[in-house]
Amino acid sequence: MPTIPPPSRRRALALAVILLLAACGGGDPYQGLDADALYRIAEVELSEGDAENAVEVLERLHLVYGDWPRIPDAGILLAVAHFEDGDYLTARSEYRRFLDRFAAHPRAPEAALGECRSLARLTPHPQRDQGYTEEAIGVCGNVVVDYPATPQADEAQQLRADLRFTMAEKEYLNGEHYFRRRQYDSAIIYYQFVVDLYPETEFAPQALLGLYHANEAIGYSDLAVEARERLLDEYPDSIEAAELRTDGST
Fold it and tell me: Which of 7, 67, 75, 97 has the fewest beta carbons closer than 10 A?
């Protein structure tokens, strides 16, 4: 009884046969291949980890067979290939192009989440400019609103929460930066951003503690009391509230 190759080996053999047959017609390995064959090749390339070649094949498909009935599927696959290749900006553009052209397509939620994911991957270290992070928060939020009760909305919601954590961390680190340099007025501004904009994150009680200490340092006793009371009332189980109690500041 002959040995049957495993699925990955069979896919690779199928790709080799297709390319060999195409190569007989000239130097272009894709010459003479129809849209279905090109799509299958791209799928195999992606499954074998060669996203760059998949991009090349799919771009050829779009160029030659732009009216192919499955061009929306090819658009999604092209975006995925760019994402897997680490080209998140281009992936985002391809997902956005899909949504602009095929807003009512059943795969629209998948494309919307892909755009959210792509922007999330562009999020830099918290101490750097967070332009992409802010944009990603908005895009991921739109997925939650536009496609409620879907798996894509659930994942986008989690990504959005992670991104908000990053933004809160950035603002808090800015506050700490100014506090360490005794520039208390500037520190207060950033601490307040965290408290007002990201109250659900772990940085909110930290920022309230920072507000308490910064206002105490410059003699704003009433504002220090306000920050202290808010910390104890809204985050009573936090480490920062325990620190206030330990210091006898309650």
Answer: 67
Q: 218-246, pLDDT tens digit by residue? A: 999 999 999 999 999 999 999 999 999 88
List, in sequence order, the alpha helices (H) in 122-220.
131-146, 151-180, 184-197, 203-217
Q: How many residues does the chain have?
A: 250
Q: What is the CATH number of domain 182-250?
A: 1.25.40
Output the CA angle 31-36-41, nearest 5 degrees: 70
Please choose, from the candidates 190, 214, 203, the residue with its C-alpha nearest in 3D space to the C-alpha of residue 240: 203
Residue position matching structure tokens 């536009």? 146
CB 158 within 8 A of CB 141: no
Q: From 1.25.40, 3.30.530, 1.20.58, 3.40.50, which CATH number describes the 7-85 domain?
A: 1.25.40
Query: Domain spans of the chain?
Result: 7-85, 87-173, 182-250
pLDDT at 248: 61
Q: What is the rounded CA–CA span in Å between residue 22 and residue 27?
A: 9
Give yes or no for a contact between 98 and 115, defined as CB atoms under 8 angstroms apart: no
Residues of the chain falling short of pLDDT 50: 1-5, 7-10, 12-14, 16-17, 19-25
- Answer whether 7-85 and 182-250 agree in fold: yes
Whole-number Å distance between alpha carbons of 99 and 152: 15
- 140's tokens: 């991921």
Tokens of 60: 């050829």
Is 87-173 a CATH 1.20.1300.10 domain? no
C-beta separation of 203 from 168 below 8 A: yes
